[in-house]
Write a structure and sequence with these properties.
InterPro entries: Hppk (IPR000550), Hppk_sf (IPR035907). This protein has about 160 residues and is α+β, with helices and mostly antiparallel strands. About 25% of the residues lie in helices and about 30% in strands. The protein is globular and about 35 Å long.
Length: about 160
Amino acid sequence: MGDVYIGFGSNRDDHLDNLMEALKHLGNFNLIIDRCSSVYATEGVDSGKGMPEFYNMVASFETTLGPKEVLSRCQYVEKLMGKDLTPLVARKIDLDLLYYGNLIICEDNLILPHPLAHRRRFVVIPMVEIAPDFVHPVMGLTMSQLNEKLPEEIGYVNKVKEIM
């Protein structure tokens, strides 16, 4: 079984319902929910001016699926929920495969760990909540250490709701 961390984001319609729907769908694909962070309200990163704030969270899963299969399941759920792929538009759901254990993969359609995960407060803070001692496979730092290194000006992250 592999430990998988997936980031969830939504800034369209009922943000919280969207996150819970995506979590439920992923649970139907041999992805067993282990831990789930609180939901955080965050400003969009690279999403254009005037965009609604995002609700973000991270969940960890146990699975026998390989990394490409997990990515495929995430993309399927995004499509199922009507993700608009147009750049700079509000997203009903956005799922990012952040980490698959300590695997390092660099292929055309899959990069692990997610290349921006360690620089995004809306990923690092939820990761600290559910896996503070998880070591970033490339950086060699725990999530708690990465959190300490993030500059304050990277935007707000406010806890909205505890899930589990």
